[in-house]
Write a structure and sequence with these properties.
The chain is of the alpha+beta class. It contains 16 helices and 11 strands. The protein has a 5-stranded antiparallel sheet with strand order 4-3-6-9-10, with no helix packed on it. A 4-stranded antiparallel sheet has the order 5-2-7-8, with no helix packed on it. A two-stranded antiparallel ribbon has the order 1-11. The termini are far apart.
Amino acid sequence: MPSTIGTQLKNARLDRNLSLKDVFESTHIRIKYLKALEADDFSVMPSPVQGRGFLRLYAQYLNFDVDALLEDLRDTAEEGTSRFSKVEEIQETTLDDSDSVSIPNMDEDESLWERFQHRLADARARPEPNLVDEAESLASTAEASPNHARPEASHSEKDDEPPLPTEESQIIFVEIGKTLRKRREMLSLTFAEVEGHIHLRPRYLECLEKGDFEALPSPVQTRGMLNNYADFLDLDADAVSNRYAEGLQAQRVERQIKDREHLEATPKKKRRFAIGGFVAPDLIFGVGMVALLIAFSVWGLGRIANSRVTQTESKATAPSIAEVLMATPTVGATSTVTPTVMINTPAPGGVVETEVLGEEGLPEGDISGVQILVTIMERTWMRVSVDGEIVFEGRTKPNATFIYNGNETVEVYTSNGAGVRIAYNNKDMGLLGGLGEIVLRLYGARAILTPTVTPTLPVTETSTPTVTLTPTPSNTPRPTGTTE
């Protein structure tokens, strides 16, 4: 019984003293897929298309005769058909290029063996590169291998490979594209087959393989396409993504250098100074608002200070005691009141009597009459009587002064003792009383009199004795000098 393809691959690998790890490092086919190929188990393959590509790449790496393998595959075509029953139909178109080889159309009933025959004819139409060397240098910038005869490869070699750019970033991008294209060609995959599995449009796949990343929508989408495409081709997606990031970084540096060179080459035009060239409008507005606030604050503080000074000057300042004592009072018309002696008589409601305070209230010197200087300390109500006549009665304002002269008495009556200050006969007597205290003072010529209320004892009625006249006997004188 002839050995299977997997057995032949395994025996060839063992004859060369190669391990699966060595094959993986050269072909970049994962070890689990290599084991599946040697065991003829195609169920673990991601797709029949990739399984067929892995088989072809592994066989070429071991220098197997592809014709012999296909002859063996013909004997087991029925078994192979069941294994690759999920292979998608590929629509082939007629190539316009004279160098390309026409491929017969595939009917729906076309067998797997006929499809392999078509692929074999396609591979023989153009020389294939050394797959071992290509597998060892996937990340290098080797020359692109000739395209296989496929519907997507109908373009000429000149159009397929753009001229090598001089920028480092473009070199990196072209290198990534060549790596992807080599891997796809080694797996014998078409753009249609790739699109059926990773759902990327052929024009995007073509841009990726050409390294023309500028034609793709955005760098973020380009990175995602590269990851999906590299993962589908069983490449190291992280390495491809990192290489693409290096290309983006190099592209950014190149653009900065170009911009700097362009600025240096452009002649500078002399222009007038413009404040808007280096100062933002928001900054100008903010500085203006701060300046307005400072000016308004200074103006307000000045107004407040001026108003306080004006109020201080407008207020009447109470003269000091020294000024009052040193000033010569103007003697006006004073009423002469004859003092009357008041005799306390009992009354039902009480009797008000005058009490002399004593010698401590006597003024110094021999001064005739009464002189009172009243200084208002707080707003209060006051009534002043001179020698029994009311000369002032009403509310007073702070810092007001009044001078009263009398012959006998000056009476001061106020509702706030703390708001009235008295100077009696050129002697400061201080405040009349406490805050809110009702005070009545009577200043005489020689003493300060304080009216006080004296309680009256109730009158007790006493019986008055009735006087009765009692006759008193008296001696009746006898007449003398009479005779009987």
